Structure formats: C-alpha cells, structure tokens
Amino acid sequence: MLNAISGPEDRDPYSLPPDAADYMAATRRGIKGLRVAWSPDLGVFPIQREVAGVTAEAVRAFESAGATVDEVKLKFPRGQAELCDAWLRQSAVRAAESAEGLKHSTGIDLRGSHRNEVPPEFAESLDLGHRLSAMDYRRDDVIRTEVLDGLQDVFDGYDLIVSPTLAALPVDNATNGNTLGPREIEGERVDPWIGWCLTYPYNFTGHPAASIPAGLSKDGLPVGLQVAARRFADETLLAACGAFEAARPWAATYHRAGGAT
C-alpha cells in the first residue's frame, strides 16, 4: 500500500517529492549497526508494572538482530497531563472543523440533532473545539514544538526510539461503543480517553511510528511495543519492525477458532 500511495500530488501542498523507497524491501533489510534508544516511559508516562516488564524484555530482540540498545531518558518541560490536555485541545479543533463540514454537506449535526449518536466525550470535544480561539490553538503549537525538541534530542544520536505502546493492559470494549481506559496508573491520574496511550506524542511531531506485538501478559492479554524513527525514515522503521518479527515471530500467538483468526 505504501509503495502505491507514495509520491507527490500537486493538489496536496504537504506531499513529498518522489523518492526511490521500496517499503516491502525495507522489511527484509535488517538493522545491523542501528542505534536503538529504549525509553520505558517516554519520559513522562506512568507505566503499569506488567507492561513495563513485558516491553523491557521484548526490546532486547533488537540486540539479537544486530542493533545496539541503550536506555535513555527523554526530557519534556511538561508532564503527561499537560501534554495530554494540549493534544485533546488540538484534536478538538480539528474534530469540530470536520463536524462543521459534515453539517454543511449533509445536514447531519453532531452537536445538535445527532448529538446522542456519538460518545459523550466526543460530543464534549466538539463543544471544546468551538470554544477555543485561534490564539489558544497557536499557543498549543508551542507545546508541540517542545515535544519535537525532546524527541529530536534523542534522534540526534539514535536511529529509533522504542517504548511501550500503551501504559496499561487492554481494557474491555464497551458495549455502547464508548470504550475508555483507566483513570489511574501506578497511583498517577491519567485521562481515560487518550492519556494512557504513548502514541499521541508522535501525532504532535510527524515522526513515523508503528506498534508491534511485544508479548502477552500473564493472563494472555497482548502488550504492544512502539517503534519510532526519524522524520521521513519510514524505511528504517519498517526494517526495524521486520527485524523484530524475524527475531520473535508472533504468528503463533494468534489462535484459530471456528475457522477465523
């Protein structure tokens, strides 16, 4: 898919010039000699003990694939609660913009007549997006830059940053479609919508990132390992994921039942 959709598009001002990337080939390239920065918590997140144990053991697979792994400390000037709030504000503005476009194009009003058809947290996010000013949005861009700087300080010396994907084990899916995570991890309050996900910092910055299976909890729940590379180094990221899978194949983890996986 990446091979098919890559390349410039004149109507997209953010599209990139053509390159010679072969993403399928990258998965077989290997990672011998690459430098991996292992961050157990991305510097600010509380991590459930079992998740911490599974991921700390899994990251060693990169060493068996020929990479060097060092534990590093990421430094952000703000804690996870402030970073999460900034992400929720910025995503609220974008969601409100999309909802406004939907209303004008189809008549479906997610803040009005169709409000009860979306999760309450999302409805509140749309309200927040309408309340925030342009200056509020631009102030949060300062926080985005701080996150970029903190990550780039590590990427200046490493090819990859590896961390847990989530701060906690998976939660049950809500029957009403409104699944929320924990409100507290290891004694620290987190936002149940996104605050337990170590993924949104890379949404701030645009670094390519992937989640790969790290292993299972003692109760058989999946634990993810997040791998991120320098900006535009998608091939390096895919090479790392391919090397990890070759070192620790995960196909046998999935059990067939009734003919379906």
Radius of gyration: 20 Å
CATH domain class name: Alpha Beta
Considering the protein shown, what is the CATH homologous superfamily? Amidase signature (AS) domain
Shape: globular
H/E topology pattern:
HHEHHEHHHEEEHEEH
Q: Helices and strands in order, then pairings?
A:
Elements: H1 2-5, H2 23-26, E1 35-38, H3 49-58, H4 61-64, E2 68-71, H5 80-106, H6 120-131, H7 134-155, E3 160-164, E4 184-185, E5 188-189, H8 200-205, E6 209-216, E7 222-229, H9 234-247
Parallel strand pairs: 1-2, 1-3
Antiparallel strand pairs: 3-7, 4-5, 6-7
Helix pairs in contact: 5-6, 5-7
Task: Compose a concise summary of this entry.
The protein is α/β, with parallel strands linked by helices and 261 residues long.
What does this structure look like?
The protein is 39% helix and 13% strand. The protein starts with a helix and ends in a 14-residue tail after the last helix. The chain has 9 helices and 7 strands. With 261 residues, it is an alpha/beta fold. The longest helix is centred in the middle third of the chain and has 27 residues. The protein has a 5-stranded mixed β-sheet. The C terminus is likely disordered. It has a single domain, classed as Amidase signature (AS) enzymes, CATH 3.90.1300. It is globular.
